[in-house]
Amino acid sequence: MGLDKDKAVEILLKRLDLPGALGDIIDEVLEPALDKMVKDSSNPYDDMAKAALYPVLEQALKDEIRKLWDKLNGSDEE
């Protein structure tokens, strides 16, 4: 009786939304850091680069996080 490590991990994997939490961290940490970097620079090209690349990079990071999570969680559908 009791809860062993494997069962605890199984429960956590089933109940946690780690990809969602990591996505929120990307939104709350990475984007503001990039905003600060481009704001502190007088180079107009970094503003354009951030505007062009960040939306694509953000989605790519979140997609990769989801794929890794699904693989860890045993629901890899590749």
Defining key terms:
single chain; 78 residues; mainly alpha; 3 helices
Please give the structural blueprint.
Blueprint: H1 5-15, H2 18-39, H3 44-72
Helix pairs in contact: 2-3
Walkthrough of the structure:
The structure is a single chain. The protein has 78 residues and is an all-alpha fold. The chain has one domain (17-72). 79% of the residues lie in helices and 0% in strands.
Question: How would you summarize what this structure contains?
Answer:
It contains 3 helices and no strands.
User: Approximately how much beta-strand content do the residues carry?
Assistant: under 5%
Number of domains: 1
Helical stretch tally: 3
> Helix proportion of residues, in percent?
over 70%
Give the overall average pLDDT. Answer: 87
Largest sheet, in brief, is: none
Rg measurement, Å: 18 Å
Order of helix and strand elements from N to C terminus: HHH
The helix-and-strand class reads mainly alpha
What distance lies between the first and last C-alpha atoms, to the nearest angstrom? 37 Å
Overall shape: it is elongated
- Low-confidence segments: none
Strand tally is 0
